[in-house]
């Protein structure tokens, strides 16, 4: 902050306090002129009595002004003046983080030394993982982890980048970027319609238009490299399986044409710099459990 703006804030703050104090003291009355004396103001038949401010109310304002002066001397609030106590938000945060680390660090360390499968079955660890998920992941994947348009469902068994604990850890720590190019310039409009018809046929569905045979040939030319010759997908590319009924960007012919025509670019940010390895370990266990332990519990009911 420049000296000018620092001085500007100081002057405005001091003048505001002084002005409010002057208004309070200059208009103070200690003696009532009578029970029926009014200020002469009339608001829709309601008159305002001319009585002094109650003493407790007046002295409350005085104490408030004194507190404000003391606060601005002790803490930052006057431009670049840091206050006599030297308090800063950064120092406060560091103290709270240190206290939290001292209190919760041993708990995180204990779980970090356990295998993912064991952590996922520990009730306390699952609660901790759920809170981490709510704070860092639910904005995209939803509070129930079932995803939405463009964001994967984490409770099923369909995984773009692999479902093993280490693969999930890699995804959370370093993030992922799934890129599918648009093929309209290569296939043309008819080619897009034909490929869409063939892709729908892979999951046993029919398209309202398009030549499946021609679409199959085009698919083998431009799509099979990533999605595989049978459309089963490939986690090395983050290419989804096209033979099931799970669609990240919609399964209607129109949405599939949109994807083939213009491509998709999906990014998951990396959390390795924001979360400690022990917290990522808990988060991996929670996410892994969503499609393993929870799925088994649901199937057994």
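^ structure tokens above, recovered residues below v
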């Amino acid at each position: 902050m420049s000296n000018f703006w620092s001085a500007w804030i100081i002057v405005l703050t001091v003048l505001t306090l002084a002005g409010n104090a002057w208004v309070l003291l200059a208009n103070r009355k200690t003696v009532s002129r009578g029970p029926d004396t009014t200020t002469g103001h009339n608001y829709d038949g309601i008159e305002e009595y001319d009585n002094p401010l109650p003493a407790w109310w007046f002295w409350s304002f005085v104490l408030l002004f004194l507190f404000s002066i003391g606060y601005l001397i002790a803490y930052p609030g006057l431009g670049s003046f840091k206050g006599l106590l030297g308090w800063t938000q950064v120092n406060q945060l560091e103290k709270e983080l240190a206290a939290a680390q001292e209190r919760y660090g041993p708990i995180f360390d204990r779980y970090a030394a356990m295998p993912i499968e064991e952590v996922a079955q520990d009730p306390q660890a699952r609660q901790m993982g759920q809170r981490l998920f709510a704070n860092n992941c639910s904005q995209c994947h939803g509070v129930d982890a079932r995803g939405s348009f463009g964001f994967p469902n984490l409770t099923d068994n369909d995984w773009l980048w692999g479902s093993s604990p280490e693969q999930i850890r890699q995804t959370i720590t370093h993030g992922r970027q799934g890129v599918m190019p648009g093929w309209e310039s290569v296939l043309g409009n008819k080619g897009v319609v034909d490929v869409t018809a063939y892709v729908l046929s892979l999951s046993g569905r029919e398209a309202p238009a398009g030549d499946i045979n021609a679409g199959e040939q085009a698919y083998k030319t431009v799509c099979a490299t990533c999605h595989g010759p049978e459309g089963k997908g490939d986690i090395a590319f983050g290419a989804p399986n096209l033979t099931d009924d799970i669609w990240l960007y919609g399964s209607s012919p129109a949405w599939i044409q949109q994807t083939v025509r213009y491509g998709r670019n999906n990014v998951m940010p990396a959390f390795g710099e924001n979360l400690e390895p022990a917290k990522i370990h808990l988060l991996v266990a929670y996410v892994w459990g969503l499609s393993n332990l929870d799925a088994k519990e649901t199937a057994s009911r």
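Residues 178-268 form a domain with the Cytochrome Bc1 Complex; Chain D, domain 2 fold (CATH 1.10.760.10).
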